[in-house]
Every structure is written in structure tokens, then in C-alpha cells.
Amino acid sequence: MLRNNKNNTSGFVTADFIFSFLLASMMTTLLFGLCFTFTVIEIAQYISFSATRAAIPAQKSYAQQKDRAEKKYAQLVSNSVIRPLLINGWFSLSLAPQDIRLNEKANEDFSEEYSGEKDPLLIMPAAGVRLTLTAKILNLNLGPLGRIESETGNGFNLKIGTLLFREPTQEECQKLIESRYSRILDLNKTQYRVLGEVGLGGSNPYFPMEDNGC
After folding, report:
1. Mean of pLDDT values over 168-183
2. Considering only 73-77, 93-97, 195-199, which range has the smallest mean pLDDT?
3. Are 161 and 131 in contact (CB under 8 A)?
4. Residue 204 confidence (pLDDT) above 60
């Protein structure tokens, strides 16, 4: 009787089926999370590009360019179609103030982080908007396969940025024009300075200039 029980193999297929079903379910869950994450990454990339594209056209001031980027970002993340994909507990998209860098001042861009080797002949756009995407959906516990953890332990965070060339603002162009105009007047202080009262601290903010350099 004992020998017959040892030789009885009934039920092995059921055990194999249960193991295979659980393994397939865990892998399906992982693939679903990855596919959904890649989809949201593309959406976040579109938001980053749109915010940067809204910021780079010429405005009156740098502050207005930055404000355009923030407003465009807020408009897109609150969109009735996009918002459910980002605000659902699975993902988190954020824009930090220091991640809007439009190269108004020296070193106020992303050149140190993305330019790679320092080549003086390499010109690349370094102004733009960078977003931080956190994929909470990938913090999975797959049972026998273990728990998926990021290397840092802070979750799966991804930086998504867009870099473009920014157009100069009206204030920047005005400073450039005044600088050039002042140097032209200084070429002949006796003759040219007759026109110097126009636009340089005088009551009239306009002055003649054929090429404003902008």
C-alpha cells in the first residue's frame, strides 16, 4: 500500500499548472507596469516639450518667459484627458522651480549636466524645462519573485527634459542696443553726442538703430 502511494503521480499536472499560472500572472503584471510607464513617459516628454516651446519665444522679460512655461505645464497636467493618467496613485509628475532654466545668466542652464565633453566648437541648446516623473506603479511585490526596488531606494524617478534655443527678451535686446549705440556715440563725442540724449537715460526711450542685433 505504501509502495503504491509513492508511485502515484496524480496531481502533478495541477501543481505545475498552479506554478505556471502564478509565474505568468506575475510576469504579466510586470509587463503591464512597464508598458504603462513607457506610455506615461511619452506623455511627460510631450508636456516638457510644450512647456519649453511656450517659454522660448521672445517676451518682454525673462520672468514672462518663465511664467509662460509654468502656465503651459499647469494647463497640460490639468487637462481632462491627461490628468487621469498622471493623478491616479501610480505616477507623480512634478516641476521644480530650479528645473526651468532659460539661460538668462551665466551657468543658468543645463549645459553642465548634458553637454558631455567640453568642446568649444560644440554649440547645443541648454535652455529648457525638466520634469521629474515618479513611477509608483513599479514598486511591485511579485511574491516568489521578490520585490522590485530601485537602486537608490527612493522609488523609480526619471528626469525628462527638453532643450531648445531661447529667443532673447525685449529687455536683453534693449541692453544690447544701448551698449552698441553708446559705443557708436563715443567714436566722436563732439559730433555724435548731439544725438545721445535720445534713448540713453533721456525722456524718449527710442533711438535710431538700423540693426538691433536681435
Report:
1. 78
2. 195-199
3. yes
4. no
Nearest to 143 by CA among 46, 65, 27: 27
* Dihedral, CA of residue 206, residue 211, residue 212 and residue 214, to nearest 10: 150
Reading phi first (left if > 0) and then psi (alpha if -120 to 50, else beta), residue 166 is in: beta
Distance CA 190, CA 115 (A): 48
Helix (H) or strand (E) holding 163: strand 157-164
Q: Which residue has the cell 516641476?
A: 95
**List of residues 6+ apart from 208 with CB closer than 8 A:** 195, 198
Work out the average pLDDT over 167-183.
Answer: 78
pLDDT exceeds cutoff 60 at 46: yes
Task: Find the Cα–Cα–Cα–Cα dihedral 195, 198, 201, 206, rounded to 10°.
Answer: -150
C-alpha cell at 205: 526711450
Is a pLDDT exceeding 90 seen at residue 76? yes
